[in-house]
Design brief:
Blueprint: E1 8-12, H1 17-28, E2 32-37, H2 40-50, E3 55-59, H3 65-79, E4 84-87, H4 102-130, E5 133-137, H5 150-170, E6 176-182, H6 204-216, E7 225-228
Parallel strand pairs: 1-2, 1-4, 2-3, 4-5, 5-6, 6-7
């Protein structure tokens, strides 16, 4: 992409954390941004925090493909195009596998893995028209397993594999596909409230800069899988 003015991005899970940080970065570059969240309250609060007419708020649960189809239709009806999609919505439930509930397992798979499929399936035709960019937010947990992380690992390993295969399927349409795999990020993930103790972590705006770098890259070059981690771990 060369001219970003009025290009349209759709960010799932964009009401806070990484999605919110990426949205702010793209808005600062003149793009129009649609954000989605699972609750009306979270979307309304995010719109107040943005205070920008170039932001469209949508209530959508990525676990339901019907929601994502409605979200994409709303964006197209509003702005007529979608140029960038960031599948960022995710949840984490951590417990030893013998203690993990069916509900926690399915929530992660339905949101983290099925959700990236639903978002791409709903937006792929629009991305074909725009020759756009589809980016998934995976995790270093998508290549590094850990105790009490079986469900989360399964979902994020799946996201990495899904995205890499989708990249091969879609590049013939000039759609670029990448996955970003962050380590520790200072967000509200898993009911955490960021504070000064998170200063050593990756910040949401850092992921925003990374997404911006991907969009600016020469179209002949595709970083299809990006691992990113804090420069120095927390000293305990």
């Amino acid at each position: 992409m060369k001219d970003f003015k009025n290009k349209v991005a759709y960010i799932t899970g964009g009401t806070k954390g990484i999605g919110f940080g990426v949205a702010k970065t793209l808005l600062s570059q003149g793009m129009r941004v649609a954000i989605s969240g699972r609750s009306k309250e979270s979307v309304e609060q995010a719109l107040k925090d943005f205070e920008d007419d170039s932001v469209l708020g949508i209530v959508s649960n990525v676990a339901h493909i019907a929601d994502e189809k409605k979200a994409v239709s709303k964006i197209l009806n509003t702005w007529g195009q979608i140029d960038v999609v960031l599948a960022n919505a995710g949840v984490g439930n951590f417990a030893p596998i013998d203690e993990m509930t069916d509900e926690d397992w399915h929530q992660m798979i339905d949101t983290n893995l099925n959700g990236v499929f639903h978002t791409l399936k709903a937006s792929v035709n629009a991305l074909k028209k725009s020759k756009g960019y589809y980016i998934t937010l995976a995790s270093l947990a998508g290549t590094n397993f850990f105790a009490s992380g079986a469900g989360y690992n399964a979902s994020k390993f799946g996201v990495v594999g899904f995205t890499q295969a989708a990249m091969l399927d879609l590049r013939k349409y000039d759609i670029k596909v990448s996955t970003i795999m962050p380590g520790s990020v200072a967000t509200h993930f898993n009911n955490h409230e960021p504070d000064d103790s998170d200063a050593w972590k990756i910040q949401p705006e850092d992921i925003g800069e990374l997404v911006w770098d991907l969009l600016k890259m020469n179209p002949r070059t595709l970083p299809s899988k990006i691992e990113v981690r804090p420069s120095r771990p927390d000293k305990k």
